[in-house]
Design a protein that fits this description.
By secondary structure, this protein is mainly beta. It has one domain: Beta Barrel (Lipocalin), CATH 2.40.128.110. Strands 1-4-5-7-8-9-10-13 form an eight-stranded antiparallel beta barrel. The chain has one helix and 13 strands, in the order E-E-E-E-E-E-H-E-E-E-E-E-E-E.
Length: 179
């Protein structure tokens, strides 16, 4: 099988893409954040096996709409951006079942690499009438455990409750441009 976009090299369009996350706070609400600086590229081959993608995220660009929280996330309690300024992803397999895609790969955060699998939806391909360049859209979701990456800062709230959840939901909306 092949991807439903043209074969060749693709680069992310950062102005029409987002790298976001959600985590539970106090077990009762969700805190959302995003990374504002990132890069990604994809190689689309004749088959899914011949296709790959990679991404790099600037951890210092974390943005939760709260400067104090963002600074805490940049500290050694969480990301340790001075020692580990980048989060990286490199795909190891892209598979398809019907209309759904899955991308498996290695995610590195805080100097630790673990496998991850993202569920991917193809949103379509379109020629931009202004630039005449071909664009393709994808959305992807997945869940990671922050403790898998050595990010274990927390505070017990009693019984089995913690200040912040271990599970972090990843939400990507990506627009690629054929290069």
């Amino acid at each position: 099988m092949s991807l439903p976009i043209n074969q060749g090299q693709w680069k992310i369009d950062p102005t029409h893409s987002s790298v976001a996350f959600t985590i539970k706070h106090l077990g009762i609400s969700k805190v959302r954040g995003q990374f504002n600086a990132f890069d990604a590229s994809a190689t689309v081959g004749e088959t899914l096996d011949a296709s790959s993608l990679s991404a790099e995220i600037d951890m210092a660009s974390v943005d939760t709409n709260n400067e104090d929280r963002d600074n805490h996330l940049k500290s050694t309690d969480f990301f340790g951006v001075e020692a580990n300024p980048k989060m990286t992803f490199s795909s190891s397999a892209i598979t398809q079942a019907g209309e759904e895609y899955k991308v498996a790969g290695d995610l590195t955060i805080n100097g630790q690499t673990k496998p991850i699998e993202l569920k991917v939806e193809f949103e379509g391909q379109q020629v931009n009438p202004q630039s005449q360049s071909t664009h393709a859209g994808f959305s992807a979701t997945g869940i990671i455990k922050r403790s898998d990456y050595g990010i274990d800062f927390n505070m017990p709230l009693g019984a089995d409750k913690m200040l912040i959840s271990d599970d972090v939901k990843i939400e990507l909306d990506v627009q690629l441009v054929e290069s």
